[in-house]
Amino acid sequence: MSISDRWKGLGLCLGILGVILAFIASLTAGVADLSPGDVIRGLISPATVGDKEAYLIRSVRFPRAVAAVLAGMSLAVAGALMQAFTRNSLASPDLLGVNQGAGLAVVSTLFLTSGESVTGYTWIAMAGALLAAVGVLGSSSMGQKNLSPLRLILAGSALTALLASITQGILILNQRSMDEMRFWLAGSLVGRDWEWVIQTGWLMVAGVGLALLVRRQVHMLSLGEEVAQGLGMAVLPWKWFFLVLVALLAGSSVALAGPIGFIGLVVPNAIRLMIGSDYRWVIPFSACMGAFLLLVADMGARIVLPSREVSVGVMTAFLGAPYFIWLARGKGGSG
């Protein structure tokens, strides 16, 4: 292992430590202020704290923090995969309509079945994400030998606007659940208990695990199709596999936390700026930084206003929008 890889390994360990510290800090943040000591005691020995505090720590904030870690990891890794196989630094699940496709699938199902909860619709969200991804990639590459970064972004923006307008139209027709769905569609971790985490978490863990296992193939494809073919890679099957994997990650995270934006865009780009474009390292670093960023954004959503909670999607947009503007102006969308 080279010295460079040793430093990257050390950086990854520090990143994991940062996620652990942010996780503990997230258990202290909220209307009811708790110290780190209270949190640790509440987790290890609930009898040493009050019943209310123990319930708040173990049944409210702990599953919510786990949900933030899972959704942050999934969105960041999905963004890294999309940027690798499209070779476009502006590719991400939210900008290319994948998140909106998942959100529309869930909202449509709730409207048609008169449901009132977004739990249990993970597979529907995944199907919507996959259809949106296939649609944007197909329309942007139609009649083209290579995938144009500009055409990809234009097709993604058009599809995102179309899906968002359809979703809003459905919500207007379904006044009963409009407020709940609007908050969820902006990205929300409110009320995420163990039922939510168990229903969707295993899919996100499996998706991130698969991405880590195939990160060598991801790196090969990021070098270009000709290079990947020269290295013996069957490009088309792997592209479809990565597309399904993106749908798995994005769909399950949308089912859990709504279509949170900018995590999938900002994190992989920031990681590449720090450690380079070797996706064997970009993917694990992205998972780590995505979890950290969403934990921090969720803490901010709870404390930025004293009287009410802000949607976590608003916080990620606040953090990510300036970086996106700089990226679009500075790089022009090239991979």
How would you sum up this structure, described in words?
There is one protein chain. The protein is mainly α. The chain has one domain: Orthogonal Bundle (ABC transporter involved in vitamin B12 uptake, BtuC). It is built from 14 helices and no strands. The mean pLDDT is 84.
Q: TL;DR of this structure?
A:
This protein is mainly alpha-helical.
Topology:
Blueprint: H1 3-28, H2 36-44, H3 51-86, H4 98-113, H5 122-141, H6 149-173, H7 178-185, H8 194-213, H9 215-222, H10 225-230, H11 235-257, H12 263-275, H13 279-303, H14 312-331
Helix pairs in contact: 1-2, 1-3, 1-13, 2-3, 3-8, 3-9, 3-11, 3-12, 3-13, 4-5, 4-6, 4-11, 5-6, 5-11, 8-11, 9-13, 12-13, 13-14
Number of strands: 0
Task: Kindly report the name of the CATH homologous superfamily.
Answer: ABC transporter involved in vitamin B12 uptake, BtuC
Structural class: mainly alpha
At CATH's second level, what is the architecture? Answer: Orthogonal Bundle
Low-pLDDT residue spans? none
CATH topology description: ABC transporter involved in vitamin B12 uptake, BtuC
Number of helices: 14
Question: Span from first to last CA?
Answer: 28 Å
- What overall geometry do the principal axes of the alpha carbons give? globular
- Share of residues in helices: over 70%
Domains (count): 1
Mean model confidence by pLDDT = 84
- Beta-strand proportion: under 5%
Major pleated sheet:
none
Q: Output the helix-strand order.
A: HHHHHHHHHHHHHH
Regarding quaternary structure, what we see is single chain
- CATH C-level label: Mainly Alpha
Radius of gyration: 20 Å
